[in-house]
Design brief:
The complex is a heterodimer of chains A (139) and B (346).
Chain A (H helix, E strand, L loop, with lengths): L10 E6 L7 H12 L3 E4 L6 H11 L3 E6 L4 H14 L7 E6 L3 H10 L3 E3 L5 H11 L5
Helix pairs in contact in A: 2-3
Chain B lengths: L1 H8 L3 H13 L4 H9 L6 E7 L5 H14 L4 E7 L8 E3 L14 E7 L6 H16 L3 E7 L3 H9 L2 E6 L6 H7 L7 E4 L7 H16 L22 H7 L3 E4 L8 H18 L1 H32 L2 H10 L5 H21 L1
Helix pairs in contact in B: 1-2, 2-5, 4-10, 5-6
Classes of the chains: A alpha/beta (139), B alpha/beta (346).
Family (chain B): Belongs to the SIMIBI class G3E GTPase family. ArgK/MeaB subfamily.
Keywords (chain B): Chaperone, GTP-binding, Hydrolase, Nucleotide-binding
GO molecular function, one term (chain B): hydrolase activity
């Protein structure tokens, strides 16, 4: 019963941005996160960066997972990050990227604030573990 | 702590989001936050939207929000989805339908999961509505999947309750069974372009007329005896003074949405003119106080049980027939009763 007092749950937004209709991965991830006991908000397909920003700010998620397989990550992800900064939501959101990201780009993404990139072959356990360890603690 | 409230009151979205998180998590200090917010509330119109899964709630709410924005009003939405009773996890999918308000920060949309808490959802929802109200939203919409007690819960937080009924959703008995007739102020038959829509409207109308007639409505004094607080819900007087509207919509194509808003507006006017709004809010605050007292006492005594050696020890004694549950309860509550008596006699 004492669990009644505080009910903290890790909240995640699984986001699909841009012209990329491949959502099987995002669905599988959403489900894995749910089964890990997290609350998952799924954005739906073809979202604009500003929509992702809006959702991240309003939902106050701990984790933003961006699934992107279109190759447009270099354009879209910086836009999202700039938006988050504008609303003061950058510093306490863990940003993850999943998809086909070349090594050089991965380095760049990490420089601008992405915490981890999960490519093909990454396991669910790995990802869930990473989220558990790195989800920001909101005072 | 009150920095956060200052930021919220000055219109910072992030602060609003964070306050709602604290409310939802019941973080240490959230009670102070809600206390501070209270004096800034009372300006928003709160609308509860419920209906069976797939009846089109999210789509309609999206269009309603867009239409309110066209009318120059700001909107807050709280969408509640169920969570898994096993892992506590949830996929909150209502946001997917919010396509009409892209990038419009003046529609504040927040997904909440029904974290499997005992009645805690209604407290969290009430408090989150207060946050949106204090932030300055003109309209606050609470969207919840319709399943029994949940619907009663939103009645407690909403001024106007809207029930969505999809066409062909079964015969009259289904509607009675769901217990939705008593709580709706406005009924919306969504997906009205589907077969069976006019029949559903017809059936609804008939059922609502029964409710007005001689046959006692189940929402009155007698039917709801199982819920101790229902006496205050004002269902009965509402059935007398307000005839629920029935509106047909095709939310996906934006048809009938303006009619829905007009209908809601009419109900709001009725609330003001009949004095019902004041009565409603008094009832609501009374209910809120009752809930908080119940929860707080519960918490206090739960801690005491742990302090006394835990529930298991009591259960052992009861199993061994050394004592019985009533005596245990008397022992635990006794000191509290003594305290209260002492204070009263002073």
């Amino acid at each position: 019963m004492s669990a009644d007092q505080e009910q903290q749950t890790i909240r995640c937004l699984v986001a699909k941005v841009g012209l990329d209709g491949h959502d099987r991965g995002a669905h599988v991830i959403s489900r894995a996160l749910r089964d890990a006991g997290f609350e998952v908000i799924y954005s739906g397909l073809h979202r604009a960066p500003e929509e992702i920003v809006q959702a991240t700010v309003q939902e106050d998620v701990d984790v933003l997972g961006i699934s992107i397989l279109s190759g447009a990550h270099d354009t879209l992800i910086p836009e999202i990050i700039d938006g988050l900064k504008e609303y003061d939501a950058f510093s306490d959101t863990l940003i993850l990227v999943g998809g086909i990201i070349p090594d050089d780009d991965e380095k760049e993404l990490k420089e601008i604030g992405v915490s981890e990139v999960f490519g093909p072959g990454a396991s669910m356990e790995q990802m869930v573990e990473f989220v558990r360890e790195n989800a920001p603690d909101k005072e | 702590m009150s920095d956060l409230i200052d930021e919220l009151l000055s219109g910072k979205h992030r602060a609003l989001a964070r306050v709602i998180t604290k409310i939802e998590d019941r973080r240490a200090g959230y009670r102070d936050l809600v206390s501070q917010i209270h004096q800034h509330t009372g300006n928003a119109d709160v609308i509860g939207v419920t209906g069976s899964p797939g009846s089109g709630k999210s789509t309609l709410v999206d269009k309603m929000a867009a239409t309110y924005r066209d009318r120059g009003l700001t909107v807050g939405v709280i969408a509640i989805d169920p969570s898994s009773p096993f892992t506590g996890g949830a996929v909150l999918g209502d946001r997917i339908r919010m396509g009409s308000n892209i990038g419009d920060m003046d529609v504040f949309f927040r997904s909440m999961s029904a974290r499997g808490s005992l009645g805690g959802l209604s407290t969290a929802t009430t408090d989150a509505v207060k946050a949106l109200d204090a932030f300055g939203k003109d309209k606050v919409i609470i969207e919840t999947v319709g399943a029994g007690q949940n619907e009663i819960d939103i009645v407690k937080t909403a001024d106007t309750v809207m029930v969505l009924v999809p066409p062909g959703s079964g015969d009259d008995v289904q509607m009675l069974k769901a217990g939705i007739l008593e709580i709706g102020d406005v009924f919306v038959v969504n997906k009205a372009d589907l077969d069976g829509s006019s029949r559903t409207v017809q059936e609804l109308r008939e059922m609502l007329q029964y409710g007005d007639g001689d046959i006692p409505s189940t929402g009155g004094h007698h039917g709801a005896g199982s819920m101790d607080e229902t006496e205050g819900l004002q269902l009965e007087s509402e059935a007398e003074g307000w005839d629920p509207d029935i509106v047909e919509t095709v939310a996906k194509r934006d048809e009938g949405v303006a009619d829905v808003l007009d209908s809601l507006e009419e109900h709001a006017t009725y609330l003001d003119e009949s004095g019902e709004r004041e009565q409603q809010s008094r009832t609501r605050y009374a209910e809120e106080i009752r809930t908080l007292v119940r929860e707080d006492v519960n918490e206090l005594l739960t801690a005491e049980i742990n302090n006394q050696g835990g529930m298991e020890a009591y259960v052992d004694d009861v199993v061994a027939r050394e004592t019985d549950p009533y005596t245990v309860s008397d022992d635990l509550v006794g000191p509290l009763a003594d305290c209260v008596r002492e204070r009263r006699e002073k």
